[in-house]
Specification:
The complex is a heterodimer of chains A (about 600) and B (about 375). Chain A contains 27 helices and no strands. Chain A has about 600 residues and is mainly α. In chain A, α3 packs across α20 and α20 packs across α26. In chain B, strands 1, 2, 3, 4, 5, 6, 7, 8, 9, 10, 11 and 12 form a twelve-stranded mixed β-sheet that branches. The chains are: A mainly alpha (about 600), B alpha/beta (about 375).
């Protein structure tokens, strides 16, 4: 002990502080984690900043200046040049417009859905809730592709008849297939389940006894909904809306597939276009704009949540919300809800299945059906001799890799997140807590591709005892843990404060060792939240593409990189089959895992009575 | 001292150690000159080095890793492994991903690959090759077989080209003759191409129009019988781009989707497409009726090499050389022996229906010019849309 302290200058106050800090495990952990966190979580953001404000690589060569020369040229070009309306302002406007409308739709549908499922006697709740989760666990681009398959027409030169045209004989207008309208629709479909989950959780927290009181006083149902339920749930609904908007605004694939063909760009697709044209400086500026956008969204969210806390009705007491009887509306409401769930969850998947079974796209005849994309033997006449996906050994390897990676990264995130959450909960010293909080949050806002770049730079060769990790499975895990750690830390900090805060503080006062506190208090109490975070990260790991695209080696292909490959090669049927397969796996895993835990992602709140 | 803080002490120590090691090892320990000497590359390249000596050394190395833009090279890799018993892994990825990966791997001195097969020659030759991240190597036989124009910086493995493709079911004859036709009303909304903002070869074609603006001006006069009037553009090349973009072309996310739109049998009113000639090879397998228009004026389109080279710092330089030799050999080249791709070698027979590159009337990409004007062209295109 004494030897360790001789390093510090002999200031008595500092000395005392160090002594005290030394005895607080949370502080020690906090201090110890700063360097690794900064290196693993913050360096990708530094990389983006470097590209944004200095000439790097090819940009330096093109400008004829030494690499690393500082510049504000990229900012000027993007926000204040002749070209900036095209480069920045219009895409920004498009991002906001589609994001806001999609969010409104998603929140309206999700909110109505949440109310129906938590507060009324609509039948088949559990089934409806589980099917409604499908569009959310599906990556958004298959829905976008399915949308195009449905609404394309042969009215434009080179167009093919879509399913709608085939079924109705009518040619949908072009705006129905490409442009802002389909972007809004696809994102609303993808995100309403997210809004539904958050809002139903919020509705659960609204104390039903207030509604009951209102009921006893003879207030009408509609008035109760408007005067009691809504105001109480509003901040939480607002928070759900803000987070939904954040997801919509950052989405790349939907505008890429249904917007770009008619030149409709959002910030995310512009970022991609600039990267594809090696304009990394401008791309980095757009990336920072997206970071700023999500920072603003999060700040708004923080305020909305703060608002929610002001209403002191959030109690830990169990209650059973009273069910509104739908009476004569029961049949039409049930029918409509079922139709909606089917249209958003089952139809897109169905369209992709049809695509995967079509020998040639756009021909709807029995003779055009084939199982080649699924189980065909290698035949040089199809897709350069690619065997059907279920016969492809590499595909099975990719599947196994994806599953293994997602499970491991989610597990590690949850475990590593816990001590970090403890540091944040400790709250002292403020600078340390704040630093850890910020560091563990940076990855959330960093573009995924920047992670790929920096991790390749860091781990392409051995660092001391750590061997070169490029091309290894370990690197994929390391990078996904780094990218997903914010979710775990956030979820665990919130849960810790809400559920176990007092107990942890009590344990600390009683000088109980940290390991024991963890084992006896934290883990048992936080298990449900940790588990929910685990499932969400697992699903998100299965969907990851741009994070890993630079890091996969020949033996570490993932399902998503496989789909990407088929897409690049233009093997449409194969990529449709792969997507269906991917969705099936994600749905299966999340169902199985939830069953094993005996816990529903929708927290069993939709059980029948 | 509690148990927890002891754990903490260990953590602090470990992370300090990690930082120390990091800062030490971040200095380049790689000796470039020693690598040149051992690999006989760069300044130490021995142009008389024979395949036999390379093969012996390659077998000792026993392994080769290839990063490639083209998935067809995977087939070559499998055949190579079978023939020489040298473990060969070919990993294919998109053009831009490959560039990034090579840049960062070289910057970190990871040297995780031995051979690179690149796309986007202008970018590669103007940046990576000039910075010494890839090195040329050819056996004496291949040196003789590949023309000088395809050996600038790095030798080409094969040559691809962008031209105009039409639907041969609906049109018995090519429907157009001059590039200027694409700017006329009959082709409004009926020209398909990969989204120019996706980068790559298509943007290079647009650079070529600007570079050869005199040819375009002359062709305009031949075709329409009058001098071209520029509408606020610097030259006929930009004027062509402006009019082409004003004629509302259809942009697709990928080249294969463009091919689908042009050639599918159930297409009513097929457009023409600007795309790589390789798309014509889909003819058989996807029942697309695609045909290339040779002899367009003032040029058939743009041809560009896809270069191959030994990765700087390669851990298996001799296996890399042997792989390059094999990829250029008649046997190893087989996956590329398809319509629309010319071998860099002039001494091997072409696939059927193909005319020699020298007679096909293409502009050849000019890497330096392209690299310089690329951003301007991009900005011009963006400004027009």
């Amino acid at each position: 002990m004494a030897e360790a302290l001789t390093l510090s200058p002999p200031t008595s106050r500092l000395h005392a502080w160090i002594l005290r800090a030394w005895q607080t495990p949370a502080i020690v952990i906090g201090l110890a984690s700063i360097v690794p966190l900064a290196l693993l979580l913050a360096s990708p953001m530094v990389h983006v900043l470097r590209e944004a404000f200095s000439y790097q690589e090819n940009e330096a060569l093109r400008a004829g200046v030494p690499e690393g020369t500082l510049t504000l040229e990229f900012v000027r070009e993007v926000v204040a040049s002749n070209l900036s309306p095209k480069l920045f302002w219009i895409p920004l406007g498009n991002t906001l417009v589609t994001g806001v409308i999609a969010t409104m739709l998603a929140v309206m549908i999700g909110g109505a859905f949440a109310w129906l499922l938590t507060r009324t006697d609509i039948p088949g709740k559990k089934v409806l809730a589980n099917i409604a989760l499908i569009p959310y666990v599906t990556p958004p681009w298959p829905i976008a592709l399915a949308w195009v398959a449905a609404f394309q027409t042969d009215a434009v030169p080179g167009g093919k008849p879509g399913i709608v045209q085939w079924l109705t004989g009518m040619k949908p207008p072009s705006w129905a297939c490409y442009g802002p309208f389909p972007i809004i629709m696809v994102e609303a479909i993808h995100l309403y389940a997210y809004a539904f989950l958050s809002i139903s959780a919020a509705l659960q927290r609204v104390d039903a006894s207030l509604e009951e009181a209102s009921d006893v006083l003879g207030v009408s149902r509609a008035r109760t909904l408007g005067k009691i339920t809504m105001p109480l749930a509003l901040p939480a609904i607002l928070s759900a809306a803000i987070l939904t908007f954040g997801k919509a605004a950052g989405n790349f694939s939907t505008p890429f597939f249904v917007g770009n063909p008619v030149g409709y760009h959002t910030l995310a697709t512009w970022l991609y276009a600039l990267v594809q044209n090696q304009q990394n400086g401008r791309a980095a500026i757009i990336a920072l704009a997206l970071v700023l956008l999500s920072a603003v969204t999060l700040e708004l969210n923080r305020r909305a949540v703060g608002q929610a806390r002001k209403y002191g009705t959030v109690t830990g007491k169990g209650f059973r919300a009273q069910r509104v009887k739908l009476r004569h509306l029961r049949v039409p409401v049930t029918a409509m809800t079922t139709l909606l769930v089917l249209a958003t969850a089952v139809v897109p998947l169905g369209i992709l299945i049809v695509q995967s079974l079509s020998a040639e796209e756009g021909i709807y005849a029995l003779s055009n059906l084939t199982l080649h994309s699924w189980i065909g033997h290698s035949d040089v006449r199809y897709a350069r001799g690619e065997p059907g996906i279920l016969r492809n050994a590499e595909m099975w390897m990719a599947t196994w890799n994806s599953v293994k990676m997602s499970v491991l990264q989610a597990g590690i995130c949850v475990l590593v997140g816990l001590p970090l959450a403890l540091v944040i909960h400790e709250g002292k010293p403020a600078w340390l807590t704040r630093l850890v909080e910020i560091l563990t949050f940076v990855p959330y806002m960093t573009p995924a591709l920047a992670f790929g770049a920096v991790y390749l730079l860091l781990f392409a060769r051995p660092i001391g005892p750590i061997p070169a990790l490029y091309g290894t499975f370990t690197l994929l895990i390391v990078v996904s843990v780094a990218k997903h750690i914010p979710y775990a830390v956030r979820a665990e900090t919130a849960a810790l404060t809400q559920v176990a805060g007092e107990l942890v503080d009590a344990a600390k006062i009683m000088d109980i060792p940290l390991a024991l506190t963890m084992r006896k208090i934290l883990i048992p109490l936080l298990r449900p939240s940790m588990f929910a975070a685990f499932v969400m990260m697992l699903i998100s790991g299965m969907k990851e593409l741009s994070l890993v695209i630079l890091l996969v080696g020949p033996n570490t292909q993932l399902l998503t990189t496989f789909v990407y490959r088929y897409q690049e090669l233009g093997h449409r049927g194969f990529s449709a089959a792969m997507v269906v397969f991917l969705v099936a796996i994600v749905v299966t895993i999340s169902t199985v895992v939830r069953r094993l835990q005996g816990e529903d992602l929708a927290k069993g709140q939709f059980s029948e009575e | 001292m509690t148990k927890g803080s002891r754990v903490g002490a260990v953590l602090v120590g470990a992370s300090l150690l990690a930082v120390g090691i990091l800062s030490l090892t971040c200095r380049p320990a790689f000796d470039q000159q020693a690598w040149f000497k051992a690999a006989k590359l760069g300044p130490f390249r021995d142009k008389s080095e024979t395949v036999a000596t390379v093969e012996a050394a390659a077998r000792k190395e026993g392994e080769v890793v290839v990063w490639s833009l083209s998935s067809r090279l995977e087939e070559t890799g499998k055949a190579f492994e079978k023939k020489y018993g040298i473990k060969c892994s070919v990993q294919s990825m998109g053009t831009q991903d490959l560039l990034k990966k090579v840049r960062y791997d070289q910057q970190a001195k990871g040297f995780n690959a031995d051979v690179y097969l690149f796309g986007d020659a202008p970018e590669v030759l103007s940046t990576l090759v000039k910075q010494g991240q890839a090195w040329p190597w050819l056996s004496p036989e291949m040196e003789r077989a590949i023309p000088e124009s395809l050996k600038v910086g790095l030798p080409a493995h094969h040559v691809s080209a962008i031209g105009v493709i039409y639907n041969s079911d609906k049109y018995a004859q090519p429907p157009i003759k001059s590039w200027w036709d694409l700017t006329t009303p009959p082709w409004q909304g009926r020209v398909v191409m990969k989204d120019l903002k996706k980068g790559g070869g298509d943007v290079n074609l647009f650079s070529a129009f600007v570079q050869h603006s005199d040819d375009l001006a002359r062709d305009y006069k031949d075709h329409f019988g009058e001098e071209i009037k520029l509408d606020g553009t610097p030259n006929a090349g930009y004027e062509f781009l402006k009019r082409l973009l004003a004629n509302k072309p259809i942009f697709t996310p990928s080249g294969s989707e463009a091919a689908d739109k042009v050639g599918a049998s159930n297409v009513v009113d097929p457009p023409v497409g600007l795309m790589t000639l390789g798309k014509v090879r889909y003819k058989g397998e996807r029942s697309l009726a695609l045909k290339w228009i040779p002899g367009m004026t003032p040029a058939s389109g743009l041809a560009y090499p896809d270069p191959i080279g030994v990765a700087n710092g390669a851990k298996h330089p001799y296996a890399a050389k042997l792989f390059i030799e094999y990829a250029l050999s008649v046997e190893g080249y087989k996956p590329y022996l398809e319509y629309g791709t010319w071998p860099a070698r002039t001494d091997v027979p072409l696939p059927e229906e193909m005319i020699p590159l020298s007679q096909a009337g293409f502009w050849i990409v000019d890497p330096d010019y392209n690299f310089k004007v690329r951003k301007d062209i991009f900005d011009f295109i963006v400004g027009q849309q």
